[in-house]
Amino acid sequence: MTIWIFALFLMLMFGSAGAMGGGIRLSIQLLGVIISFSLASPLSPMLDWVPKVMGFHNPVTAWALPPILTFVLLNLIFASIAFGVHHKIEIHYQYRAADDVRLNWERVNSRLGIIVGMIVGSLYVVILGVLIHTAGYFTTQVKNGTSDPMGFQILTRMTADMKTTGLDRVVLAVSPVGENFYLTSDLVGLLYHNPDLRKRLMDYPLFNTLEDRPDFQAFEEERRTNYLARIASKTNFMVVLKSGMTQELMKNKDLQALYRDMDLGDVLKFATNGTSPKYEKEKLLGRWQLDLVPTVQAIRKKRNPPLPELKYLTTMYRSMLKDITIVASANNQISVRGSIADGQTLGRVLAYTLPKNIDISKLSTNFSNTNIFKTFLTGTWKSGSSDSYTLTLGDLGDSEVTLKDDKLTTTVGGQPVVFGKVD
């Protein structure tokens, strides 16, 4: 109902304007509306600098404002042309034509203006419908009942009315808004209403090393916790959108570049069902945790230590290395995480051998490890031949890795290490 009231209001308004302005002026403006709308999106890059000059650094504003400004400026040009043409014709009939001819012309011009004005009004229903449907599609995904701002509720209601009346099909047929906007809206809405999916999304091959970035780690833990708690409680989305952390994340240049390059359809599928058709063929991607049993078996096969020593080493590994995890991302970044000090410590633990003739029974097996779980190594990976890869990890240098039967085998500190895939 709201959309029909809105449409009727616009058509009556432009019909009245046509009666006063005349058919000639409104005909030129009709042409201007069509041309302006057609060129608003293609010419908008020429005005990409305007939001920055106006002090708008939000990427959403930077995306939406240029085409709107382009449409308005082109319309003003055609309005000026329409005024000039109408004025010349009006002067002609006012001073050079007989009164009966002038009166007939004014009557015809006014009646024609009503018709053309109604047509212009109907075009504006569609054009403004594009804006309403675009914004309303997003507000529909993040709606939160009566706690939403009045503007959100109106946009959501009008968008629903457009769908009910079928006007949305007309709007979508002419809308210059790309598919990525709708995919982004779907993804934001999915995460907003299902905050637990955030953990799954952070395992997406393009995102799984984001938390290792210095700009992410710069956010204080308490601030991050409060921010995520606010989202989890389904706070009014405008509050989330206006929060300082959201604004900082949206202005992050690297994140903007990541957004432009990502396949949003694939991201949405991963968030929905945990699978990525785009990256599923690259077996290295994902999380790999130290698998103690095959690691000990590999060490035994390599140097065959005495059984007591092997048991001692197994106990030490289980205490100090149980949570060692390798994370490989789609942008060839890799990180090693665990509750251990650094890469050199990892190498020393794995390379540790007991002195000869030592009484193992007298050695302490109380291995203290008070370090917090963190990323202690970062680097890159590259594909080799078949199922082999090369990892470059900071002070550990290059390591050759083989992948077979969902087991990742490499060498650290001269000792074989086996990792298993974490689902």
User: What is the CA-based Rg, rounded?
Assistant: 33 Å
Mean pLDDT reading: 84
Secondary-structure element string: HHHHHHHHHHHHHHHEHHEEHEEEEE
Coarse morphology: elongated
Q: Please summarize the sheet with the most strands.
A: 8 strands, antiparallel, barrel
Instruction: Estimate the helix proportion, in percent.
Output: 55-70%
Number of domains: 3
Structure notes:
The chain has 3 domains: 2-174, no CATH class; 194-273, no CATH class; 286-422, Lipocalin (Beta Barrel). The chain is elongated and about 120 Å long. The chain has helices at residues 2-21, 23-43, 50-53, 59-95, 99-141, 150-165, 167-174, 179-193, 197-201, 214-217, 221-232, 237-242, 244-251, 253-261, 264-273, 292-303, 307-320, 343-351; strands at residues 286-290, 325-328, 333-338, 374-383, 388-393, 397-404, 407-412, 415-422. 60% of the residues lie in helices and 13% in strands. The protein has an 8-stranded antiparallel β-barrel with strand order 1-2-3-4-5-6-7-8. The mean pLDDT is 84. The protein is α+β, with helices and mostly antiparallel strands. It has 18 helices and 8 strands. A hairpin with a 3-residue loop joins strand 5 (388-393) and strand 6. The protein starts with a helix and ends with a strand. Helix 2 (23-43) runs antiparallel to helix 4 (59-95) and helix 2 packs parallel to helix 5.
Short description:
With 423 residues, this protein is an alpha+beta fold.
